[in-house]
């Protein structure tokens, strides 16, 4: 017996709706999985692009940089996109470039349509901040938290030195003015007594030979490196062309609205960057052997930025001399025995025609000249590889006031005690904290760029062509004209 089969219109409608609903679910699942596949493929392609970092930059400086010229010397966004598209094609066709496969190649019908760079940050953007951040992260891992905290304390010493320098400069300018005015008063007073011109002139000649103030003034006018180096003829003669370096030329600029992590401790980043530079760059006291360096005194160039080793060394030496003068002068005015010694000599120098204010001014002039003489001895010692205490006391002070008039014409000498205190490199560290961080960053990049260019195959390397952050906008198409737009980003940090 047959059972008649039938279906009602209502049931047909129900089945149709259920099938449509299931098809919609399947379609939505397909679209979402395709989107996920597209994002994953694009992210992997971007990671592959950043995997082509510059090998020499990593080996020599421990930083990741993407050379946008791909060693051609000609930066090109199109070249970056071409590499990105090529890596992307391997994600969408697993069998690409494979001659034989054990199974059917894995393919899917998602197709990348368009790619556009919407954000690009270069190593030189924003005063080189992205470069400093990467260096800071590297140094944090290398040094550890204890050493990092110790480095941050250097800033307190720098602030103290800055304050002493300002006080010293003010005192020096004021003393020069007072001495000139009071010396005129003294000469006028001498003329009014009716003393013979011959006797007065003879007295002045005798006094000048014993006057430390005039001896120091004369020494300041002589070539600086001749005063501070035993063999100034051995100073490096290397030079660079300032018109072609990063800190002078018009730099390529990145674009896009993306910002670096603003929650970072910028002060700490700067501290660690400066420590990194001092570990990587050579200086006058430690040049080492490296034919790829553009200059032998790299730290001095990073601080000063002049075209020759000699000019940079001279400027650094002058800066150290000022620092030592400020510190030594502050010690002299705080030490009563030294001040009394200077006052006694001031009375002897001024003589019977001395005006009380002139005696006082001469005392201060003697203290300034004494601080200068001791500072010359200090900087000579530093440049010769010795150590000098940052703060002086009675035991560490070496130059007697009585020796000062003839000190500058004596045979070259350094401190007797050159084993206690801090080195030339330590004093350079102080100078780094007194300088502008962006200028120092660009000057270090000058050196880095020049050294890498000296390596085979890197003649066209440029720091302002090195990418540190990239965002690419993608448009993908799936079956049935379904499209999807999204962006992927990558950063060296």
Which structural class matches the secondary elements? Answer: alpha+beta
Q: Quick one: how many beta strands? A: 4
Radius of gyration: 36 Å
Whole-number average pLDDT? 83
Major sheet? 4 strands, antiparallel
Helix and strand run? HHEHEHHHHHHHHHHHHHHEE
Low-pLDDT segments: 191-208
Percent helix: 55-70%
How much strand content do the residues show? 5-15%
User: Count of helices?
Assistant: 17
The CA-CA distance between the termini, in Å, is: 81 Å
Shape: elongated
Structure write-up:
The chain has 17 helices and four strands. By secondary structure, it is an alpha+beta fold. Strands 1, 2, 3 and 4 form a four-stranded antiparallel β-sheet that branches. Helix 4 (129-143) packs across helix 10. It is elongated and about 145 Å long.
Identify the notable features of this structure and list them briefly:
493 residues, alpha+beta, four-stranded antiparallel sheet, 17 helices, 56% helix
Short description, anyone?
The protein has 493 residues and is of the alpha+beta class. It has 17 helices and four strands.
